[in-house]
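Appendix B. One record, verbatim.
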Amino acid sequence: MYPVALRDEIRTWVLIQGKSQRAVANHFGLSRNTVAKLLLEEPALKERRYQRQAEHKTPVRDAALPHIEKWLKENEWLSRWAPKQCWTAHRMWVELRKLDIPIGESTVRMYVQEKHQTTKPAFVPLDFAPGERAEFDFGEATVKIKGQLVKVPFLAGRLRFSGAMFVECFPTQRQEAFLLGQRDAFEFWGGVTRMAVYDNLKPAVLQVLEGHSRREHEVFLHFQSVYREDRTFCQCACRLGERKRRESGWVCST
């Protein structure tokens, strides 16, 4: 067995920096077969979590739910025409005890509260928790080098919670720059966000499918599996013909 840090370092050299397996084997003092096996090995989980094999049974709750659902349905009519006669959680619990269903009053209250919450209008959250979301995209900056104006590509990342920015310049916008820039951003921020938002960049996306679905590069998928980060892509706001797409391009929005 080899340390996880060594395995990840080898993956970085080969998959991100583009070095050959022979060069990596010589540098770390390993055989080429060992390097190949480490590249194919799946990343190990940081922690082992218990997974329930059998479905949890709740016979008392299952017996009470049909009655509660019926009373909540009656409340939809009573709330408009006879609000004082609406079924309360306490009244439901009393009636259930009369039916010899030994359910707790707190359980009835929690279920009624959950049903009331699901009926509230949906909205798009504009606030994000620390470390919840980051955004990455390529751009170009015009800089003066030795007296001449030159366009330099850069990868920009931003945290949605704090607004912390990370910008790194590269000679190209190729895949190795795309992945290396994200790795440097995570090191600069001191951690990996739970989700990242991307434009439909060629280093990540092979084909744009319907909605947010994409056919992604295998190297990009492997990068995401190593850092265990969820991802989503900008959705195309317009669907033009192939000719118009080549002329005007996609207009994307998050």
